[in-house]
Structure formats: structure tokens, C-alpha cells
Amino acid sequence: MGYRLIKIFLIGLSLTAAVVAGAANTKFYVIEIKKGIDKGSFRLLKKGLAEAEEQKADYVIIHLNTYGGAVDAADSIRTALLNSSIPTISFIDNQAVSAGALISIACDSIYMKKGGTFGAATVVNQNGEVMPDKYQSFMRAMMRSTAEVNGRDPSIAESMVTDSSKVLSFTFEEAFENGYCEGSANSLEEVASIVTGTDNNSIVIQKISLLDRIISLFLSPVLQGLLLMFIIGGIYFELQSPGIGFPSAIAILSAILYFSPLYLEGLAENWEIIVFVLGIILILAELFVIPGFGIAGISGIILSITGLIFAMVNNDLLFFEGEIHYIIILKPLAMVLLSFFISISVSIFLAGKYLSGNRFNYLALKTELNRKDGFSLMDQKSEDLVGKTGIAQTPLMPTGKIEIGGKWYEASMEMGSAAKGDILVVTRSSAGRLYCEHPPR
Description:
Blueprint: H1 2-24, E1 27-33, H2 39-54, E2 59-66, H3 71-82, E3 88-97, H4 99-106, E4 109-112, E5 117-119, H5 133-149, H6 154-159, E6 169-170, H7 172-177, E7 183-184, H8 188-196, E8 202-205, H9 210-218, H10 221-238, H11 246-264, H12 270-288, H13 295-310, H14 315-318, H15 327-355, E9 389-392, E10 399-404, E11 407-413, E12 423-430, E13 433-437
Parallel strand pairs: 1-2, 1-8, 2-3, 3-4, 3-5, 4-7, 11-13
Antiparallel strand pairs: 5-6, 9-10, 9-12, 10-11, 12-13
């Protein structure tokens, strides 16, 4: 009898230990989003979901405290969460508005800290101004379809995206009453306890490595804009002097740093990089091989800008739900064109201020121009050459060499370009350089 009691006790003790061990094995993997949502946020979330699967986590908690961010990045996060094989939980730790609301709705369940806010997904620009209705329509479609997938009222999700006087935001109580929140919690541990009904849970928070932070930094819009300016500025400066020098190195390095993170994250595809490189080749061919500036140069500019723009675009979002949404292209287009304008303006200013002196001579390719080769120092006052007629000895696009009275001079076109052999008239001189134009016909 005593032996049977001992056996029953040991069996019960084993079962209790097994239950406790099983409860302790409930693993929650936490991905934190506590800043503006951008491509870097999507990269870290995608990596976190992969790590959660590797570690055989039972649940993924998205720890949210954000005022929103880029719509395309938020949609990429939304898609990743909807396709996750692990149940996902959104823990709104204060704020989940705008793009943060879209991410929360994409999760299987939502828990909020009391006093938090959830909603207000109206699309605005960087100045906080409400964007036109075509932007709102796109966001409403995403909010509605996401809510439908997870069994939530789509009309409520849609009402979070409208004009500023009617936009919907929820407190915890309002979200709970409308089925947009499963409960309140003050910590990750409390969320885990509510889900499992026990305090014996394992919580693993995603670790962000230095490399992850660097890649996320290069995916930020600010740094991408700077890299664009270095690419364009480097090409412009290199065209001012022959050979491959420091400006070319800057342009090439900037292009690598621009495309590499986008390519690694699946945003920049092979064809977009090829289009950019082909555009640069056509521009160089137009400048150095083909006289004048025509189809090849214009095509090169269009192709290079197209490659830069589409490298920043999520193609799945561009063709959202079987429709082409051109509004996704507008932000990258504006960034590229603005960077182009700023870079060219600054480059022209710096070229006129510094390249005419000796301060940066060590950066340029040095070539000796001998008198016996047809070159000549400005042994005559440049002002005396104004009004003289000369013959272009090299293509001027817009800079090259012109021959006047058997001597060669550095010259630039006032407007347009000139082919080798064209007759040109000197209109003015500045800093030892002659400026020319075609004679009137």
C-alpha cells in the first residue's frame, strides 16, 4: 500500500513538472518599433520574424510606440505580418497612429496600455498637411483589406483614414468596445501572462547588431538623399576635367552605398541597377563620343533617373491589389529631382569658386599642354580676343579647345554645344576662359 502511494506521488510530481516545463517553454519573441517607420524598420522586422521561426517561438510581439512614417514601409511590414506562420500580437505601448495603426491591425491580436492612442491613419506630408484624396483612397483600401483578413470591422479601419475633421482615433476603452483590442496590459510580461494564463513564459527581445544599425542608417531618406547628391555632383565635377579622378571615386562609392542596401533588402532589382548604369553610359557617350547633345544624352538622363527612382520603390506595393498606384513613385521622384537640383546648383557654385584656383589641384588629373602641340598660354589679353572668330579643335560640350590665329585656347559655349570644326565667335572672357557662340546666320 505504501509503495503504491509513493508511486502515485512520484507520477503526480512528474506530471506537475511536465506541466510547469511546458508552460515555461511558451516563447514570445519581441520586435520593437519605437521610432518613425521606414525601410530600416521593415528590414529589422523581416529579420526578426526569421529569427523567431529559427528559435521556434510560439508568439511574436510587436512592441509599438510610433507616430507613423512611410506608407510603403508600413505596407511591407503589414504584408510580412499577414504572411507570418507564427501568431502575432501588437502591444501598443502608448502610441500606434498613422502607419502604426496599419501595423497593429495586421497583427492577430492587439493589447494596449491604458492611456494610449490607436488610429489616425490619414496620409500627410512632412509638414503635417493632409494629402489629396487619391492618397487617402489608397490608404483606406489597405486598412480595409487588412481588417477583413483578421476579422475586424473594415468600416472602422476605413474611418481612420479621412479628412482631419472626421478621422477616427481610439482610446483603449473605445478600441476594446469596438473589437479592435483584446485587452489592456502594462508590460510585455503582462501581455504574455494574459495570452498563456501563466507567469512562466520566456520573453526574447530582438538584438540589433552594429551592422543592422549601419544598414538601417543607409536606408534612411536623409542619407539616401545625400548619396544621390554625391552621385550627381561627382559626375558633374568629373566632366569638368579629363580622366578618372577623385570626383569619379566619390560618385562610384556613393552609387554602391546607395544601391547595395536597397538591393539586399529586395527593393532594388537587377533591371533597375542595369537601367541606371546604361543611363550613365549613354550620358558619357553623348559627352565624349557623339557630337552635340541629343537623343543619347536625353535618354541617358531619363534612364539614370528612372533607375534611381524605382530602386526605392516596393514593386509589390506599386501593383497593389492588381492596380498600378502611381502615387508610390511620387515621393522617390521628388527626392531624386530635388537632390539633382541641389547637387547641380552646389556643384556649379563650388566649381566656380574653387576649381579656378590652385586649392584643389591635387585632386585633378595633371596634363602638360605644350606650345609645340598647338596649345598656347594666354599671351594676349583675353579681352582683346572678344569678337574674334575661331575654329573648334575639339567638341565643346560645353567646354573644349578653340583655335584663334593659329593658337589654341580653353573655351566654353555660352549655350548649347559645338562640334569639332565649327566656326565660333568669342563673346566674352572670364578667369582666363573664353566664352563662344555660333555666329549669326
